[in-house]
Amino acid sequence: MTISKNGENRVDMTRRVDVTGFTKPLRYPKTRGMIDTFGQNKESFPQLLSIFFDKDVKTENDPHDDEAIIKEKKISHFYKEANRKSSFRADLFFNFEKRKIVFEYNGWHHYTDHFKMDRDERKKDAFQKQNIEIYTFPYYLQLTKDIAKYLFKKNFGVFSEEKYKKALEKIYRVENETEILAPGWHTTRNTPANFIPKGIKKLINEVHGMPKSTKSQLVHSLKLYMARSNGRTHMIVPENNIDFDNFMNHKIEKEDLNYFFQSDV
Asked: Where are the domains of the chain?
């Protein structure tokens, strides 16, 4: 936009900067779907599992059979240190080919809160003692095809092109993979700069096991966000952390970036 002053036209830069001094991000062309809900809460995650596992999603109190995906499933265990029974709630629990499966959606506080991370470790240990497999979906991911294959083909053999297309249509409301938001951090304030040291290690370790394309997308999103911060990079990435510096030095492959990056201004 241009404004006139003393007969001269100039760009109104104030409209391009937000209250934190960051250049404003691009508008996402889609107004509904996972872009609005998946990175903010768990709303779309049960639907995602329902598509790939062909199962209904129920609450624990709903009438259901043994094949349903149960939200907020209460799982008891014996807490040896306190000499009493206790319980954890699993975000999503279901049976799959004689396997007991738990999926957890991990929001930002799973990287910033010592007590939350300690509880996560105790929950994982309690579930494993009951032969329950636990899988996590971090808040910074999106459903690229590589991630879908990583989660559903590698671990369960339930990935198909048809299911992936259905997930794009139902959750993102798009037809093409290139139209979805890229994995990473785009406008959220819950950036790695807020992670505790243990959370940084957790991020690096879990990304190490993911497809290489995902790491390129994560690093690229942070570099774009840093550029948009107009010098306030300490709000995006942690300072004086060698491990994270090495993470950011990852060589980005351009062919992995064919998604929507909201900070690409």
From this structure: 16-256
